[in-house]
Design brief:
The complex is a heterodimer of chains A (113) and B (122).
Chain A (H helix, E strand, L loop, with lengths): L3 E4 L2 E4 L5 E7 L4 E2 L4 E2 L1 E6 L6 E5 L3 E2 L7 E6 L2 E6 L8 E7 L6 E2 L3 E5 L1
Parallel strand pairs in A: 2-13
Antiparallel strand pairs in A: 1-3, 3-10, 4-5, 6-7, 6-11, 7-8, 9-10, 11-12, 11-13
Chain B lengths: L2 E5 L2 E3 L5 E8 L8 E6 L5 E7 L8 E3 L7 E6 L4 E6 L8 E8 L7 E4 L3 E5 L2
Parallel strand pairs in B: 2-11
Antiparallel strand pairs in B: 1-3, 3-8, 4-5, 4-9, 5-6, 7-8, 9-10, 9-11
The chains are: A mainly beta (113), B mainly beta (122).
Chain lengths: 113, 122
């Protein structure tokens, strides 16, 4: 199984500042035949299901604010929120879909400083 | 609008069975793989398994933690995906979500239900 490890476990950032969450996979999730990274990011607020933010490591879902961006390749990935808003308080998860079982990082709790 | 509604959760004793349903609307149900996930109280997300569409054989895959105990099935005429859970353990206590795959399967998930809570306790 591919193990996904996020850092940090929790993060406090001031409103308007940048937030950066890292995700590392135990093996590459880059599929060489199509040069795509099989990596997604989700946001989950209390009492709600996860919301897909980004797929293929960097493709933002329709309707997701452009302050959210994803980057990285192979085994190392980053979710960046360029200017933190109050509504961004949530837990963020990375997920690999390179192979089953699909696996998630342990989550990063993002709070306002 | 895509909607997914889970039902069937509740309190069940260890060793017993429970069947969850996921009723879908707003899309051509039979064209997509459907997955189940779970989230134990205060914990992270865990993929439970998926079922492919009939076009891809309707085959299933499962997480090791539930393989042999849980079974996913689908009734395309009713637009329902099922999660049959047997030999339940206390560690199966979680909110269970169904989700529509982006493809068949693609492996990432835009549409989720609100979840149904399963509590396994004596």
């Amino acid at each position: 199984d591919i193990v996904m490890t996020q850092s940090p476990d929790s993060l406090a950032v001031s409103l308007g500042e940048r937030a950066t969450i890292n995700c590392k996979s135990s093996q590459s999730v880059l599929y060489s035949s199509n040069n795509k990274n099989y990596l997604a990011w989700y946001q989950q607020k209390p009492g709600q299901p996860p919301k897909l933010l980004i797929s293929w490591a960097s493709i933002r879902e329709s309707g997701v604010p452009d302050r959210f961006s994803g980057s990285g390749s192979g085994t190392d990935f980053t979710l960046t929120i360029s200017s933190l808003q109050a509504e961004d308080v949530a837990v963020y998860y990375c997920q690999q879909y390179y192979s089953t079982p699909y696996t998630f990082g342990q989550g990063t709790k993002l709070e306002i400083k | 609008e895509v909607q997914l509604v889970e039902s069937g959760g509740g309190l069940v004793k260890p060793g017993r069975s429970l069947r969850l349903s996921c009723t879908a609307s707003g899309f051509t149900f039979g064209d997509y793989a459907m997955s189940w996930f779970r989230q134990a109280p205060g914990k992270g997300l865990e993929w439970v398994g998926f079922i492919r569409s009939k076009a891809y054989g309707g085959t299933t895959e499962y997480a090791a933690s539930v393989k042999g105990r849980f079974t996913i099935s689908r009734d395309d005429s009713k637009r329902i995906a099922y999660l049959q859970m047997n030999s339940l353990k206390t560690e199966d206590t979680a909110v269970y979500y169904c989700s529509r795959d982006y493809g068949d399967p693609a492996g990432y998930f835009q549409h989720w239900g609100q979840g149904t809570l399963v509590t396994v306790s004596s």
